[in-house]
Design a protein that fits this description.
nine-stranded antiparallel β-sheet, Glycosyltransferase, homodimer, five-stranded antiparallel β-sheet, alpha+beta
Chain lengths: 762, 762
Amino acid sequence: MSWKVQSNATDIDTLLLEESLFFNGNGYIGIRGNLEEGLPNDAKTIRGSYINGFHDIVDIPYGEKLYAFPENQQKLLNIMDAQGIEIWIGEDNQREKLSLHSGEVLDYTRILHLDKGMTERILHWKSTKGYELKVNFKRLVSFHTRELFHQFITLTPVSMNIPIQIISSVNGEVRNFADKDDPRVSSDDENRLTITNLSWTHEGSLVEVQTKASKLRAAALSTVTVSSNSVSYRYEMNKLSVQTIMDMILSEEITLDKRTFIADSTRYENLQESLFSIKNRTALFSFSELMNLQQDYLTTFWGKTDVTIDGDDKIQEAIRFNLYHLLQSAGQDGKTSIAAKGLSGEGYEGHYFWDTEIYLLPMFTMTNPDLARKLLQYRYSILDSARERAIEMGHKKGALYPWRTITGTECSSYYPAGTAQYHISADIAYSYVQYYLATNDKSFLKEFGTEVLLETARLWIEVGHFYNGEFRIDTVTGPDEYTAIVNNNYYTNVMAKYNLHWACKIARLVQNEDPMHWKALKSKLSLEEFELEEFQSAADAMYLPTDRTLNINPQDDTFLQKEIWDFEGTPAEHYPLLLHYHPLTIYRYQVCKQADTVLAHFLVEDEQPEDIMKDSYNYYETITTHDSSLSSCVFSMMGARVGYVDKAYDYFLETARLDLDNIQGNTKDGLHMANMGGTWMAIVAGFAGLRLKEDGLYFRPQLPKQWKGYTFHIQYQDQLLQVSNHSDGFKVKLLSGGQVNLHIWDKRYIISAENPLVITNR
Amino acid sequence: MSWKVQSNATDIDTLLLEESLFFNGNGYIGIRGNLEEGLPNDAKTIRGSYINGFHDIVDIPYGEKLYAFPENQQKLLNIMDAQGIEIWIGEDNQREKLSLHSGEVLDYTRILHLDKGMTERILHWKSTKGYELKVNFKRLVSFHTRELFHQFITLTPVSMNIPIQIISSVNGEVRNFADKDDPRVSSDDENRLTITNLSWTHEGSLVEVQTKASKLRAAALSTVTVSSNSVSYRYEMNKLSVQTIMDMILSEEITLDKRTFIADSTRYENLQESLFSIKNRTALFSFSELMNLQQDYLTTFWGKTDVTIDGDDKIQEAIRFNLYHLLQSAGQDGKTSIAAKGLSGEGYEGHYFWDTEIYLLPMFTMTNPDLARKLLQYRYSILDSARERAIEMGHKKGALYPWRTITGTECSSYYPAGTAQYHISADIAYSYVQYYLATNDKSFLKEFGTEVLLETARLWIEVGHFYNGEFRIDTVTGPDEYTAIVNNNYYTNVMAKYNLHWACKIARLVQNEDPMHWKALKSKLSLEEFELEEFQSAADAMYLPTDRTLNINPQDDTFLQKEIWDFEGTPAEHYPLLLHYHPLTIYRYQVCKQADTVLAHFLVEDEQPEDIMKDSYNYYETITTHDSSLSSCVFSMMGARVGYVDKAYDYFLETARLDLDNIQGNTKDGLHMANMGGTWMAIVAGFAGLRLKEDGLYFRPQLPKQWKGYTFHIQYQDQLLQVSNHSDGFKVKLLSGGQVNLHIWDKRYIISAENPLVITNR
């Protein structure tokens, strides 16, 4: 099965799309797949390089600003552009720029090497004057040296003695991409970077910038070396960029090694010194050595994470592609997370949403718990902001996580589909619990998780109230953004219940296992004993709306009383609805942008009997538009859960190749990270039916008839498992570790290295 | 009883307040009560002159703009400032400016003459050099010549031979007032006027301006004449203003007559010519003749409108003050209406809200139906915009009136307390019906009202739906802005029912009385016969939420399930709540900004039995903050209705002097027009209990024990009635016209000129 994603496209539209698809990243740095040589002047492109979390602070404008509306937001900035390497062919006065859009492209292939962590472009080109050459561009953003963006070019002459000039640049004059016509893309392209230093020394080309409002600093140090002896180097600088100009005659194969080291002031105090030292350390390694280190990293990753599908190469390509980009986007420093578009683009301003916890963390939690822990630490790092926000929102205590943020403060300006989504606090709590169930990592729980669980539990006591003996939560918005500001959203209530219940459970655990720590924590939080009791009674009394006639959980208290959206009267071009109808219009009808109650049934399945989950699935399926990329994967998983394997497969198809096939038409703005995580879940939690519960792992394995089988890995409490499902049976093999409790179709098994599980498929 | 409102204040804060209280207007022009001579440089002032409806178009900014959010809004502009008349005292090099804040103020009184339609300032002043004089400033904005702002100054020397220089100016460099700290005041003070002409000719000083975006034009022509023979005139111009400089020796009383004529391009094509001709026509009249014309107009007005209160001079002052300012602010050209602040200030950007129909029209409808008709015509003039907005908001037909507007397009950027207040369309329909009931003016109904009623009725069919045999309206906001986006707001539903019912009734009436007209109208509206039946069935099946346990109408479907706001835990300085809590927090609780269900019970009282109205009143009273100035008057009226006369009186006190005593602290931004209308209603519909129904007038007269009595006038179907209630009895006297059907405490009476009604009070 292939480890390559390939393309031969040279048309502008596809190249724009491929800027996202072929991006290189390592969780710290992301470089879009722009072309070294650039594009024709009028071509639409989003030329971008990003540092995870590197942002400016931007005022949020309001026509009518009300109390506690956020005054400003963070915005991920496009930083210095070091991608540029122009290759000019021909005599001095007649030079032509090597380009996909001039001269003659004799052959062109672009490859993403999923196993090597590298991208490649292979070009055979002939100038209008007849000079012919082959050029190979390789790129990686190193997992070994997080600051390194590495470009390596091989030039091979086909015609003889080609006069050639290469211009390598680092450009400090960059802006973010703006599109006034699309509400999902920023409309602001103001220049927010000030160039504070631009120089060339023997250490390389250096560009330093500072953001206008947040005063963050970033620096890029770039070196370039050509393997030819006869090359002459020249340096040019203007106010905005530094260029290295190299002249030579190309008469044999030569290589060009460009290394750009990028760092920012949230990680390093003295940027120049740090970059010089990193550069010198890395200088000990050749490109191929660095590529080997990169490959080693990927080999380890795939060893724990690979998923194989037998019998469908397109899906196989997609699933690996998705897992790879998730890795490339995940912040690994405990201070950053995974933005909605990862590090592949600027869509949603580089903000972190609930997506990380609900759609992305499961994969990391179950395959790379060390990385998952870093993502969870990020949420702990912004707990103080969440506490402050709770106070600002009128609560006496607790933590209200922001709907979208980088540094922890709320960045959402449209609160009905933003701040009102209180469920994000429960989602974060949920992800801590899931991590604990997957790892049994009590020390992490003690150090970080307990506090998060207790503070979020407090929020629910603040926001909810008892009414007729039931605990109710009014005036919130659930995950489905086509309904807003409702009472008793099923999803919110059931997740709050989980939050409250586990806050108690974990508190008691810590209390028993480490009374000293518990005492200190109680004192830090000014937590009273009665609060835990309050948590438990609220959890026990949590009101979960149920409609006996339809035998479903209504999305909220009045959802079912509304009219059903006129789907027949809605032309296809009116989707997504949010771009064609006022929110009030949409809110007035039974219509869902995405899974809401169905997602709740996935996350907390033990709250409802099978028939209610199934009838709910049937009901919501007819009124869900899947206008959000977070939807199809949930309908796939829950389709499998309630017995609709064919349906699950159909939804899976929509989710698996969403970016590769640009199904939503906006992949150019960045990859849909949550959907990528959803693909993994659709296989592992969907077709294999995996659930994490206190008494072990639960599977309900099924196999779509279109496939011969699938195999994946999971890490469970120090055990590495290989799970596969083929026509001959469902197998779980312990690759390392002791023994594991399993429940297959609710029947209990214990496996060990010597005794793998094999169950003949039904 | 006095016709004067007086003040001796010279402190800056009170002067700022008096800019609103002493403003002069005539429905077309409004001039704030700024001082001719100005204030010290650092003094806070809102120096303003306005033309009703004269606006620029301003972009509305959004952090996240969604479909059909208005892109821009109209904004009432502050126009050329012609108030300036500086008086400089003393020799050339030692001149001192006459001012309330320098020299010595020996005596100062300011008077608003409610009977004369004029304001006056009487100043006795001594300069630091010892020159002593008396100055009398008179001002009127003419009801006779709508374009005229007239200033008339009398200077009387006390010391001998005072060297004096008077500078009269017209200033084109004006901006709107901005306050970034108050969401109720604009934060935008960008200059939106371009001066297109600035000149002095024998016709006078002329300043012409054009707005930047809307391209409206306005012009001011100003003449100034001094009665002294020895005066020397000089003219100075710069790019921004024209000044007339007059030097003289003051040795006897002289007068200065300054006339500024103001016109705009929505009324006149050629502004200069029009102003010259109006000026020359008016030149035939002296100031005292023009003042007499003004007084005649006011005499007629008071003859139909005056309300007297025996036994409370402060209330008497307030009620006349309020009625006077309502007159000054009411557009009388059929193209304009009454802004939230009238023509007294810039608060709420000069927009027209539902206030006009529900709080202001009743007074005009019942006393000045000709003027009421003009206000109703304004709504007809923007019916096309309302139709377009309905389409934009996803409806197939009907008319959705904008929540706030000048020209007819929606200007509200925060839709949960804006566009979502669909009830405004029913409110407008209601005001047409009330006008019809008061006047029996079928021709107006035919020409304008029927179309408005039918198009608004269509909206309810579009927005509502049948559910379990009931007609329900989801996802709207009622008048109470502390609850938003709910299902089945009682107010909205009952008003929609009235709208639907009367649309049918009036349609049938027109159909019977003028089949030709009906046919033409049906064709114009593409109205199908079945639609009328649909209106009637929706009205008949309208769902009106009722809670049997509490015996009240819940404000909406889930209102009563929410927790009650923690009033005890809310410090006094946290009111109004909207300035101290996020809307989500407020929406989460049972707490009302203003009367909602209680207002519905006032407007449509026959839908509920007495006990439900009373129990509802009791319930809502405990949870209403009256943070809106639209609230107290309703609680006064309904207090009287359900038998709480003392309570009614207490609420009345809060409403009557709201501006005079600056109770809400923001009268500087303009007068609270709706509250002023509410004062009238609290007497007429409150204490006297007047209701307009199909079979005549209904009274339930009561007398607060604090008063000896009250008297008011109403115009009912060509009859002028004087209604009074004193300890000796309730009297209705027919001042003109034939006979009238009355219901007093539900008992029927017929009165005529010969047979007034006298009922001894219970």
